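Review form for a predicted model. The reviewer records the input and the model, then writes brief findings.
Reviewer: anonymous (R2)
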Amino acid sequence: MQTQAGGPGAFARFDLNRVPSPAFVVDEVAVRRNLAVLQDVGARADARVLLALKAFSMWSLADVVGEYLDGVCASGLWEARLAREFYKGHLTTYSPAYKPADLPEILRLSDTVIFNAPDQIARFADLIAAARAEGETFDIGLRLNPEHSEGEVAKYDPCQLGSRLGFPVSQLKPEHLNGVDGLHIHALCEQGFEPLERIWAAVEPKLAPLLPDLKWINLGGGHHVTRADYRIDALVAFMKDLG
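Model under review:
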């Protein structure tokens, strides 16, 4: 899979002799430029923009991220701990599976916890109720498999045949949303607006009757919003329509 980063930027002129080796070197100017683009999208669309720690968890830049974004997404207990120690704002946690021993702490740390299937939520109902009885406040989300592939590399496609990432949208029933605050769809990787548009067109007929009862929709990651040719105005209009 070829990256869509757009070239080395300032690193094309970077003198490696200026830093010790080994070392991580970050172009903070470029990071801030990208963060500003994301912040602008969130403000214009009245949407929350979160950083996925599984993609970029360099906590030395946590304060910089916090200047621009609304929070972070964690993929499990350790990232949730990292988020609460270094990052600001909202914390959403999603994992395809949770250990019963880990979930109480995840529920305590997180503002939103997203599950992979309705029966998973039912299985952990007692732990969820116990956490709320202790005063913890959090939303519950459900990840959907839109059953519409836009992935450019089949082995990384979360919508491929047999995928266990998310509950198949074709099987979704109103009763599956009892106790669910929002839905999560993640099916992109470094892609433009058009694939998102097609995914939504595929799932909207099924979801439209259910949307009035939801607090939020999480559109996942993989949106290459900072790419020069990304249709930002179209994305903003799309998210406003969702709201």
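Findings: The chain has a mean pLDDT of 94.
Further findings: The chain has one domain: 26-242.
Recommendation: see findings above.
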